[in-house]
Specification:
Layout: H1 6-13, H2 24-32, E1 35-39, E2 44-46, E3 54-60, E4 63-68, E5 74-80, E6 85-86, E7 100-103, E8 107-113, H3 114-123, H4 125-151, H5 154-169, E9 170-173, E10 176-179, H6 185-192, H7 196-208, E11 212-215, E12 218-221, H8 224-231
Antiparallel strand pairs: 1-8, 2-7, 3-6, 3-8, 4-5, 4-7, 9-10, 10-12, 11-12
Length: about 240
């Protein structure tokens, strides 16, 4: 069981889409059987190929979901923020985790083992419906990512990745929108299926055009609309500088 009071856990769970539209009694039941796990920075909640044993909800910190391709290349699938679900494959009978979950900072997660989760699905039909909706959304997102990797120019993929992260973690500051998480150029390369050289070249060009500002694991979108133009392959306004190819 988690070391936090059941009522407090239930209140946190109510804010998470997986647990929306559940009664107070159901939320308390779910909270009572939740367990908690702490993972240090650079350690793993689980690795690709491990036996899938539990569904997790991140409580604090940040987790990077990665997958090794058949060619041995690492691809970042997504970043997990507090309130996000990961490792849910076990709840649907998948035998092994299809990706690795690495903590990029000291992190903690609530989790429920597969048997407990399946029992909750039976007892709380709305929870099962929410889980199916979440799974469908995740599949659509991954399909979009695959399409991007297969069909779009690298510059568009990088712009889409930055805009996606800005929507998830963006923090308004004086000179634009800060992607409020540690983000290296290598991370961006692994997110977009390219290499460090290409990402560095693209970011340097955008910085010269004042679309972005970069620092050590830090990126500010100074003119987000310019990245939208690149991401959607729109013609640039007459009074704006053209983006690089």
């Amino acid at each position: 069981m988690s070391d936090a009071p059941t009522d407090l856990i239930a209140t946190r769970l109510a804010r998470i889409p997986l647990f929306h539209d559940l009664t107070s009694a159901h939320l308390k039941l779910i909270a009572q059987v939740a367990q908690r796990r702490h993972v240090a920075r650079d350690a793993f909640f689980f690795q690709q190929g491990d036996t899938a044993v539990a569904l997790h909800v991140l409580d604090s910190g940040q987790v990077r979901m990665t997958q090794l391709t058949s060619e041995g290349e690492q691809v970042i699938l997504r970043f997990i923020r507090p309130g996000d679900i990961f490792g849910g494959a076990s709840a649907f009978g998948v035998k092994t985790y299809p990706a690795s979950a690495e903590a990029t900072e000291d992190s903690a997660a609530l989790y429920w083992n597969a048997a407990t989760m399946r029992d909750l699905f039976i007892r709380i039909p709305q929870l099962a419906l929410n889980a199916l909706e979440h799974t469908a959304e995740t599949i659509v997102q991954l399909q979009d990512r695959v399409r991007e990797l297969q069909t779009e120019r690298v510059e568009r993929r990088v712009a889409r990745a930055l805009l996606r992260l800005a929507r998830q973690t963006g923090k308004r500051i004086e000179n634009g929108v800060l992607i409020d998480m540690p983000l290296s150029r290598q991370d961006l390369a692994e997110m977009t299926g390219t290499n460090l050289y290409s990402v560095s070249r693209i970011l340097s060009a955008w910085e010269k055009q004042k679309f972005i500002e970069t620092g050590r694991e830090r990126i500010v979108l100074c003119v987000p609309h310019q990245l939208v133009i690149i991401a959607e392959d729109l013609p640039p306004p007459q009074d704006s500088p053209k983006h690089s190819d």
